[in-house]
Amino acid sequence: MSTIEDVARRAGVSRSTVSYALSGKRTISRETRERIETAIAELRFTPNAGARALATSQTMVIGLFVQFFEDEFSPAMLQYVLPISDAAREAGYDILMITEDNGPKALERLSSSEMVDGVILLNVAYDDQRLPVMRKMRQPGSMVGLPREPDGFDVFDLDFAASGRLLMDHLAQRGHREVILITPREHVFERGGAYAWRFRDSALQQAATYGIRVHSFFGETQQPAVNRQLNEILDAQLGSAMIIHNDAMIAALPSVLYSRGIRVPDDLSVVGIFSEDFGRIFSLPFTAVETSPDKLGRNAVQALVRRMLDPKDAEAPTLEFIAPTIMDRGSTR
Amino acid sequence: MSTIEDVARRAGVSRSTVSYALSGKRTISRETRERIETAIAELRFTPNAGARALATSQTMVIGLFVQFFEDEFSPAMLQYVLPISDAAREAGYDILMITEDNGPKALERLSSSEMVDGVILLNVAYDDQRLPVMRKMRQPGSMVGLPREPDGFDVFDLDFAASGRLLMDHLAQRGHREVILITPREHVFERGGAYAWRFRDSALQQAATYGIRVHSFFGETQQPAVNRQLNEILDAQLGSAMIIHNDAMIAALPSVLYSRGIRVPDDLSVVGIFSEDFGRIFSLPFTAVETSPDKLGRNAVQALVRRMLDPKDAEAPTLEFIAPTIMDRGSTR
DNA sequence: CTGAAAGCGCTTACAG
DNA sequence: CTGAAAGCGCTTACAG
């Protein structure tokens, strides 16, 4: 690997001139610039990242914290990770991916060793243990998921409350008076997955205004429990429509419906909340609120990049709830 | 952020002594060591990663190259990424995740800027464009997937040839004489996904030794084409058993079978090749060869760590094919 | 058992 | 328009 010194010698200039040619931070005569450029090309020179980080206090790396919970359905995570990685690269950043169980400790380590210029937290919980660490570190952070005290950070999430209302409206308009609601597992509520109760509570409230009766269940996330529970719920014949806010349950639903000979929407109306990608992978024929993981991920990167570029800029942190949209796949009547 | 200088001053020693206390590379008197340790704790000191990398020429970061192809089913990728990330952390390394389309360019960039100590390539193709870059760089690499010329690298993959034979044996033993084989998409063969033909060709060859007739199809990977094709194939009633080497097709199969009233194994025997995790996520009730993505990922990390620790050690690169094992889920008779 | 100093490869005020 | 030099925060021979 050649260094900036090698380039300078070859081009017959000083190291500083090469550096400035690279950064464009001062004007270089055309002739000198060309000599430098050919030297760089011939030597295949790329600045050493560690040296540059040391000199500039910038690593051009973003720490991405991915959490996997037993009580959640893992395939959904990739839909956030890929757009984030792409958006980061477009902005000139690489992604250091952290999957450690001990998030706070890992955050502390990345921050104090200055390995990253900023971090993105995925799947943030209401009383997320990583938040206290975030408040103390000098690097900015943005997050997907709503914490109890979002102040000071750029927070992005789907508007789950509006989503719950929207789906209930959808069913109310079609005359449904008794609805089955399947939520995430109870444990998700307990450990502070705010999306779970934000969606459920608003759906229940909206149902009340319509006088709709709701039968609510905590859904399972692992087979064979998922199929067993779906069958039990269908056996009970509790309503003319179902709202499913649970990836594992809705992924398993088509085969259960088939096996029971239940036709959608003729025998039962079904709506859900999942991303277009997820729907395609699992061939889900259900009308649903689009969860837009790509948009959430890209927004998180964008906000973070703005803060990393201009740490002084105390521009008010954004708390952005993406408005839900319904993708009608014809599964209601 | 405090530096080693701050620690040294507070402990009343020199910077070098602090550094040696940290690395344990020379004996420090008990008293001095304790003063240093308390100073480190009080200041919450963590060595600056960039400075350390510059001084040692080691970043303690592994570059992980993840490729997503249109012709493949994406949810499977996570099963490799997570075990790799965990194994890397256990060995003291962080993961820089690269998802760029232009793999060779990204590899060049990481290597020449010395951002990583080594790389892992996932989903390697037969004539992978990243290989030529790998040969020129000074960092070691290991890979999952079989390239045309694996020499010089640590390569790990499932033994797909043995897998094809194993499944054909399984069906032959149960008396099947006419078998449907569904492979990856044709495009996977064309772009050099060696796992595709290694599996198919050995299955066909083994069938020939038994005198079994095989109807082979390139499977689709996107809905609604997947369901349509499955229905066409089932309509044709070509055999008493199916071998499916295609994640999207086998994930969609249960609902198609249900909708047609085909019972497994009474009406049709089905075997596949997928990981336990994948089977659980998609609730697949099919006997299958276990693809062991976690083992492959961990082995790749292990081999890479060995080489990173001891670059001189020209120990012969390993080409390891993991022996397939069948997980019997009772879907054959 | 410990310290002073060189060096890793950059960037950027300071000077001309 | 360009160069010499200090400095970023570590590690590690060299010396004692």
What is the strand and helix layout of this fold?
The structure is a homodimer of 333-residue chains.
Chain A: H1 4-11, H2 15-23, H3 30-43, H4 49-56, E1 61-65, H5 78-90, E2 94-98, H6 103-112, E3 118-121, H7 130-136, E4 141-144, E5 154-158, H8 160-173, E6 178-183, H9 186-190, H10 194-210, E7 213-218, H11 225-235, E8 241-244, H12 247-260, E9 269-273, H13 276-281, E10 287-289, H14 293-309, E11 319-322, E12 326-327
Parallel strand pairs in A: 1-2, 1-3, 3-4, 4-5, 5-11, 6-7, 6-8, 8-9, 9-10
Antiparallel strand pairs in A: 10-12
Helix pairs in contact in A: 1-2, 1-3, 5-14, 6-7, 8-10, 11-12
Chain A binds a DNA duplex (16 and 16 nucleotides) through residues 3-5, 13-17, 19-20, 23, 25-29, 32, 47-48, 50-57.
Structural overview:
The structure is a homodimer of 333-residue chains. Chain A has 333 residues and is α/β, with parallel strands linked by helices. Chain A folds into three domains: 4-47, no CATH class; 61-158 and 293-322, Response regulator (Rossmann fold), CATH 3.40.50.2300; 160-291, Rossmann fold (3-Layer(aba) Sandwich), CATH 3.40.50. Helices cover 46% and strands 16% of the residues of chain A. The first copy, chain A, has a six-stranded parallel sheet with strand order 2-1-3-4-5-11, sandwiched between helices. In chain A, helix 1 (4-11) packs across helix 3 (30-43) and helix 8 packs parallel to helix 10. The longest helix of chain A has 17 residues, at 194-210. The model of chain A has no long low-confidence stretch (mean pLDDT 93). Chains A and B meet through helix 4, helix 5, strand 2 and helix 12 of A and helix 4, helix 5, strand 2 and helix 12 of B. The structure holds a DNA duplex (16 and 16 nucleotides).
